[in-house]
Amino acid sequence: MKKALIITLSLTLVLGTVFAASAKKAGVLEIWTDKVRYEILKPITEDFEDDYSVDVELSQINYDDIRSQFNKAAPSQEGPDILIGAHDWTGELAQNGLLEPIIMSEDLKEKFTEVSLDAFTYNDNIYGLPYSMEAIALIYNKELVEEPPETWDELMEAARELTNPEEKKYGFVYPGTGDPYHTYPFISAHGGYIFKYEGGFNPDQLGLTTEGALKGLRILDKMYEDGLIPQGIDYSTSQGLFTEGDAGMWMTGPWAISGVKEAGIDFGVMKLPPMDGNQPKPFVGVNGFYLSSYAEDMVLANEFLTNYVATEDVMTELYEEGNRPPVYKPVREKAKDDPTTAAFLESASVGTPMPNIPEMNATWGALTDKLQLISQQKQEPEAAMEAAEEIIKEAIGQGEY
Amino acid sequence: MTNLLNENNYGLFFKLIFLGLLDAIGIWASVLLYFQGAYGFIVALLLGAATINYVFLSDRTYPIRYMVPGLIFLFAFVVYPIGYTFYLSTTNYGTGHILSKQQAIESLKGQYYQPEDPVSYSFEAYKNNQGDIKLILQSNTGDKTYLTGGEKLTEVNLGNERFVDSDEDGTIESFGDYELMSRTEVIGVLQKLQKWKPEANGVALQMSNLTTFDQRISRYEYLEERDRIRDRQTGELFRPEEGTFVSTTTDRSLEPGYKATVGLENFSRIFTDPMITGPFLRVFTWTFIWAFMSVLTTFVLGLGIAIILNDSRLRLKPLYKGLLILPYAIPAFISALIWRGFFNTNVGIINTKLLQPLLGLSPAWFQDPLLAKVAVLIVNLWLGFPYMMVVCLGALQSIQPELYEVAKVDGASPFQQFRKITLPLLMVSVGPLLIGSFAFNFNNFNIIFLVTRGEPPIVGATTAGSTDILISYTYKLAFGGQGATQYGLAAAISIIIFLIIGTISAINFHYTGALEEMSENV
Q1: Structural domain range at position B213
Q2: In this complex, which of A6, A18, A394 lies closest to B31 when CB atoms are compared?
Q3: Nearest CB neighbour to A237, from listed B16, B344, B462
Q4: A358 CB within 8 Å of a chain B CB
Q5: Does the residue B95 lie in any domain?
Q6: Both B384 and B412 in a single domain?
Q7: Domain for residue B85, yes or no?
Q8: pTM surpassing 0.90?
Q9: Are A89 and A144 in the same domain?
C-alpha cells in the first residue's frame, strides 16, 4: 500500500516535470559566444529581443572549446542555433553536416568585402556571416625604431642594430618558433602557399616546396642563423619582451594591441614590409556567425543574421566594441580613422584567407615541426619542407584530419 | 509479512523510502530518456533498478546487498567505458563522420537547389478566431496570387470583393473572418510556418524569411528499399560504403558522411601505416626509459630524504616535511607550465640567473633532443619525489629498530645495514608501488605535453618528437591538428595502450605475490 502510494506520487512528479519541460516557448534563439564577444553581443541581442519579442539565450563558452563542443552537441540537438567562430572551421563543420548555408540576397552580399565572403564559402555555399577580419602586421616600438623599415632588408638591418642577447635586447620577435600561422608571410612573400587556391582550396595541390616558398624560408633561415630572431619564443614570451621595451619590432595581430597600450609603449603599426620587392601575404582570419543545421527556428535565426546583425548600426557597434577591422563596407570607412585599425586593415587586405577546408587540420602539426627544424638550424628549408609535404600528403590520403 | 514484523520497523521504513526514491528517480530518468530516444539506456536503467529492488527486498540475496552498489559503479565507470571505447575503435567516428546514418540522410534531404529562373513569393499572414492561419502569396513576377492554408495552393483574384483593402495601400486587411496578422504575431507562429511546403507547379515553396517564400527543390531523396540516395538534379545514385555515400557511376561522394562500423580497420592501420610504425620503436624505447628513469630518480631522491628525515637526531622535522611535500601539493598542471618557462633558452631563469652567470653556459634545453629529455626528467623528479618520500617514510618506520641494534652488535657498517636490512624490507612494501609508479609514468601524458609538447622535432618524415612518449605521440596522431578528431583511431590506440598497461599490471601482481612469499620467509 505504502509502496503504491510512493510510486503514484513520484509518477505525478515525473510527468509534471516532463510536461513542464516540453512546453518550450516559441521563438527562442540560442547563441554560443566566447567571453569577449559575450559582452559585445549582450546589448545587441537585448535590442533584438525587444524588437521581435522573442527570447535570446547567450551562452558563454571558452573560445577554444566552441568548435569541439559544437561538434558533440549539435547532432544530439543540444547545440545552439547560432555560434560565433573563425572562418577556418567552415570546411570541417560543413563536412560534418552541422552547418546551414546562410541565405543572402545579392544586395546584402554587395555590402561585404569579397574576401570575407570567400573565406566562409565551401562547396559554393556561404556558411557564415562575417563581421571582422584580422591579419598579423608589424608592431614597432617608436622609441627603439625611429624610422619604420620600408623593406625587409631595412627590417633586418634595424634588427641587427638592436639585437644584443647578452642584455636580453632583441630587434625582431614573433610568437612561436615554428608557428605556421605567424610564419606564413615568409612562405607567401615570393608566391609560396600551403594549398593552391583555384576558386576553392585544392587539398591535392601543395605549395610548400615551390621556389617561392623556399625563397622566403631561406630568409627566415638566415635570420635565425644570424641570431636576428631568438629561439624558443612563444606568444607570451614575445609579448613580455615587447611590452617591457626589450624588443623593437613584434610581428603579430590586433589581439596584442590592448596589452601594448596598457604597458604604455609608444607604438606604431604597419603592414609587413616587402621582401625583395614582394609583399609578404599574412593569413587572413575572418570572424563570423555560423548557423547550425540543427537550429530549431531557421527563419528567425536567418532573420537575426541577415536583417539585424548585417546592418550598419549593429556592425558599427561590433566594430567599436571589438576593435577588429570590419568587413561590412559601410563601416570600413569609419575604421580608417584609427591609424592602428587602418594599418591592420591594410595588412589584411594584402593577405590571403587561411584555407577553410578540413584538410588544413592535417598541416599544422607537420609544419610546426619542420619550421622548428629550420629555425634550430638542423635542416635546410628544402629538405624540411619536403618532409612536411610528405607527412601532409600521407595524412590527407589516410583521411587523418 | 510475519517475518517483517520481527524486524526493526524503522529499518523497513527507511528501506522503503530509499527504494521508493530510487525508483522515482529511475522512472523520471527513463521518461526523459524515452523522449530522447535512448532506449538502450532505459533497458539498462530499469534492469539495474529491478536488481536493486530485488536484492534489497528478498531475504535470499541478503549477503550481496552491500556489494551491489559497488558492482553497479564498477559497471558504470569501468566496464562500460572500456566497452564503449572498444565499440568506438571499430567505427570511423571522426571528422566528416559524426552523424548517425539517419541524421546524415536527413541532412542530405535538407539540401536543396532552386530551379532555373526561380520565382519568389512575398506573403501576408491572416488569422481567424479559431486560430487558423492562411497566407496570401504574391509572386515577384506579379502574375500569380495564391491563397494557402499550408498544403494546397488556390489561385485567387484579389480584385474579388471578399478581399477588403479599405485604405487601398495594396495590402489586404481581411477576408471572410480572417484578419491580417502583425509582424509580432507572425514571429509567434514562425515555427509552424517554416514547416509549410505548399506546392506550385510541382515545385515546393518554403519560407526563407519573414516576408518571403521561395521555390526550393530538395536535392536528394532516399530510396529506402534499395538503401540508395538519388540526386534529383543529376539523377546519379549513391550507395553507402563505410560511412560515406559514394556514387555508383562517378567518383563523387556526398557530405556529410555518417558513423559506421569499419571492423578492425583502425587497428590494421596502426600496424601497417608507415607514418605510425616508422617511429614506433624509437618512441616505445624512450617511453620505457622515461618511465624507468622517472621511477628511479624519484625513488632515490625520495628515499634519501626519507632516511635523513627518519634520523632521530634531526630537529624541526614537521617543517622540513611540510616544505618537501609542497611540490606534491601544487597542481601538476601549474608547476609543469612554470618549469617550461624556467627552462626557456633565452629568458628562462635557469639559463639567465643560474647557468649563464655561474658557469657561462646557456644550453638550448628544448632544442636539443638529449637536453629536452633531461629537462622533462628533472621536472618529473621535482613533481614526483614527495610521493616517494612519504611512502618511504611510512615504510621505514615499520622496520623494527632491534634489527639495526643486532646488526651493530655484529659490526655491520651503515652501508651494510642499508643494503642488507633497510632496502630488502623496504622493497616488500614499496616494491609494488614502484611498479605502479612505472605504469603511471608510462602514461604520464600531462608532463610531456605541458613541458615539451613532445618537442624538439625529429628530422625526417615523421610527426613524432624526441620527447614523445607513446600516449603523447598517439594523441598527436589522433588529434594532430587544430580540432582534428579521429575518435575511432584514438579509441583503437587507447585499447592497445590499455593492453600494454594491462600486461605491466599483470606482471606487477605476479611480482607482488612473489614479494609476499619472500616476506613470509624473513
Answers
A1: 112-218
A2: A18
A3: B344
A4: yes
A5: no
A6: yes
A7: no
A8: no
A9: no
